[in-house]
Amino acid sequence: MITRLFVKASIVAGFIILSANAAGADLSKRQSELKSIQTQISAQQNDLKNTSKQREKLITLLKKDEQAIARAAQRVNETQVSLKTITAQLTELEKKQTSLNKSKIGQQKTLSKQLSSAYLAGNHDYSKMMLNQQNPSTVERMLVYYQYLNNARIKAINELKTTSEQLVKVQNEQLKKQQQLNAVMVDQRQQAKQLANEQNQRQQTLTQIQRTLSDKGAQLEQLQIEEASLKRIVEQAVATAKSNPSMNGLANQKGKLKWPTKGRVSERFGSSRSGQIKWKGAVLTAPEGQNIKAIAAGKVIYADWLRGFGMVMVVDHGKGYMSLYGHAQTLFKNAGDNVNGGESIALVGRSGGQTEPSLYFEIRHKGQAVDPARYCR
């Protein structure tokens, strides 16, 4: 059995190595692309037209970086969940082992007492004792008594045997879970390392993008492009959203919903973003990796990377209502998935070129942005 467990652990380790090699090759390719773009930017620093072209290439590379971070973050999250699950299972097995050991000791003491009593009574000639009894009822009581003692010993022996077998089974299960725990811990270290590498690559790409956005005109242009991208996605979402009678919308939820994550509202709906561009949602500053939860039940109609907003999820709540969650580190749901209110759907991140971790959150009704503070308390 132990040999089989080591074979399983070896297979898991082999899978981890193959995954790490594939991720490493992809990262090396993107590092090479970044170096090539950096060289071109340096050679064409004074050519605005070419700089814009290089910026577009960098944004494409940023998309790849942030998608890679999302995959790595999801794997890290999965290993963390596995670690918690296996650790909890080991704790339960330890409790069960303690209980079985206690039962075994008690059963051994009971059986020992019964055997001692039988040994002490063994010097008597039961046949002679019963034949010497003058009262038949007394003889009958003696037979019942000794039969009871015999049955009690048989029961105690069987109980001890069952407990011993259960104890062996629990010990084998503990060994198996420990092997799984060790394999997951190895996987977690590898995935955490890969995540750190991806984040470093993203930072280098982001630094180059910021160099190409040195003037306010270029920054405003990027915001306009990002707004247009978001508008297009929302229009597509509205067009593809199918009416579902089971979804009641959010009209009756004003002031009753919880914010999708705990944090500080750093940008409010309607406040100025740049020039005439205003915020169509709220920005919540929160720790990276913190859970983002769906504000209400619905169906995911978009889950992908979007320029300026990073990893984005849009949830349809019915009757023309939808919620949008951006800048996520990773997404847990795909388009077409159903979600429950309060269910974890993503993690807070910095995707979309953000320098600080946050959540961009919108609520829309029939495609028009509404103040999320009217719905969330």
Describe the structure.
The protein has helices spanning 2-43, 48-121, 126-131, 136-212, 216-240; strands at residues 264-267, 272-274, 277-278, 282-285, 291-293, 298-306, 310-318, 321-331, 338-339, 344-348, 358-365, 368-370. The strands form two sheets. Strands 1, 4, 5, 6, 7, 8, 9, 10, 11 and 12 form a ten-stranded antiparallel β-sheet that branches. The protein has two domains: 2-212, no CATH class; 218-374, Glucose Permease (Domain IIA) (Distorted Sandwich), CATH 2.70.70. Mean pLDDT is 81; it is low at 1-17. The protein has 377 residues and is α+β, with helices and mostly antiparallel strands.
Pairing-aware structural class of the strands and helices? alpha+beta
- Strand count: 12
What is the CA–CA distance across the termini?
55 Å
The outline comes out as: elongated
The averaged pLDDT comes out at 81
Rg over CA atoms, rounded to whole Å, is: 34 Å
Beta-strand content bin: 15-25%
Counted by DSSP, the helix tally is: 5
- Helix and strand sequence: HHHHHEEEEEEEEEEEE
Domain M23ase beta-sheet core: 279-372
Region (Disordered): 244-271
Coiled coil: 34-103, 153-240
Signal peptide: 1-22
